[in-house]
Amino acid sequence: MILPFPVYFLVPSAFLVAIVGFYSWVKSKKSENLLFFLLTICQSIWAICTFLMWKSCDVDINIIFWDKVLYFFTPLMVALLYHFCLEVCQVSKIKENKIIIGISYALAFLFSFLASTNYLIDGVFRYEWGCHTYAQGGHNFFLAYLLVFVIASLWNLYRVYRDKKVDDNLRKKTFYVFIAFLIYSFSAIELLPAYGVPIYPFAYLCFPLFSIIITYAITEKNIFISGVATDVLIGFILVLFSTFLFFPEIQLGLFGKIIIFILLLISCLLLLKHNHEDSKRKEEAEKLSKLKSEFISIVSHQLRTPLTAIRGYAGMLKDGDYGPLSKKTFEPINHVHESSISMIKMVNSLLSVTRIERGKISLEFEKFSINNLLDECIDDVSIKAKEKNLNLKYIKNKGRLPLVNGDFEKIKHAVLNILNNAVLYTSKGEVIVKAYKLDSFIRIEIKDTGIGLEKEEIKNLFNSFSRGKRGTEVNTQGTGLGLYVAKNFIEMHKGKISVSSEGKDRGSTFFIDIPIKSSFLKGRDFDLK
Amino acid sequence: MKKILIIEDEKILSEMYQFKLEKEGYKTMSAMYVDEAIDLANKNNPDLVILDILLPKESGINYLVKSKNFDNIKNIPVLVISNFDDNETKKKCFDLGIRDYLIKSNYDPKEVVSRIKKILEV
Prior knowledge:
heterodimer, A: alpha+beta, Rhopdopsin 7-helix transmembrane proteins, Heat Shock Protein 90, five-stranded mixed beta sheet, two-stranded antiparallel sheet, 9 strands, B: alpha/beta, Rossmann fold, five-stranded parallel beta sheet, 5 helices, 5 strands
């Protein structure tokens, strides 16, 4: 049986609307987008049930069944529409509105329940172009409910749109949502056959029109989300083609064919436009990121030169190369020397981060003993630990540890960053380093009795520019880059870095797991990206 | 007395290394440009060369390349001390036979001296 062509358009529009709704929600999980997604689901079910009802026009039971399913979801759609519109207008949190929203849902559930009885619809009305069920006693109440809440929704949108004090983005959003739903609401004309008035189902074209407007607003005007245009347009073209593939009986006529052709043409043009824009944007972003990295590299290099002089001369002054120093002058010069060293370390960290982010770090693999690496690390921090009266100990493993295949300098850098922190953030007690075999890894354990970490702090600890909450109180010199660099260097070796702490002032333990065999990386440089 | 040639364009850094090395009993000379350094090396036959990479006119790498043409200087050990920290450059320098590559800002002059001592001992 060939159906009037507007009925066929319900199916692709249903899919299109569902795709758009789904994308909006997945891309940005705001309550507004969730409501929109649920609304589109109800609309899709409505459209598909309508189509199935028309498809089964020759069997009474089927007509009534599909119409009842349809009537089950329609009240919910109305309540969601009302809630969604208030959310868009940013007034859903007002107490009175909350109550009305609650009422709209309560009524929706009531009508949905009535849809399953014979109180809303029953019996079949057949006419020249199709069929519908007859409205029963409850239908008038349902119609009133529908009209009141749809008009209220549209009125809310219109009011915000006309309000000149509201910001432009919100006005733009309310404008498109208003137009789209205003057009969609005209599909209610299709309720006339329920009262025995036969009409050609032109009003079903309101739904495809709605779907196109809302898709346009979302993809081109970014009203709910941005950056989904390409995906949605491809979805649209796919849905349009599949419709004609699965319903070859559709007879469009010249007018219909022209409309479809124009739709396809516009979608393809938009697709091309977005494609160009995307690649242009990507290029620009890459250029910018490269510029940023180059800028940091140059600045770091330029900074290093004067810092070398400050460090060098201060060091020589301190060592008495320019004559003996009094106790009074020794201290300030020592401060200059130490500060210059910590500034150099910061510059080095900044450079490492830039390189990590540009994927410009390569590893030089060699076989080495973790024992040697840890001895060197302990040597490097022992002076600091002694100054603070900390017990810094490396407890060597009883058995011999297997050699590790990795980049000695990078792993040392990572271990040193953590060991330095352990000493820095521990004011009394001890820092104990251990190394042992754990499955196919060698685990280095660095345990301190320092300031410890709270659960929330651990989450972001390894991000760039992140510092423990109290880290800034104890020591103001950190950059928040050390652990980020350490994590990246260890992960480049396919290793893992983790931390545990029993909480504030109860110390922390860092674990660095380095794979013993990284033979698959052997012999070639391994780029991060 | 061992002689050390410092190829460095930053005057204050060049003077800094010169001062420290002379204090440690070395004889020093300094150059800012590659060609000037090749001339000096040819004339004085230093025992070690300290080389910076970013130099005016041409890169320090050119010193390594050019010195290969002179039999009397091609085997003088070279210690690169530069703030230019780039893996490719480092690799190139090691391929051209340098003894070590130090990032200038990471070392005090006394640490540089101890590296030099180690190289000269071998």
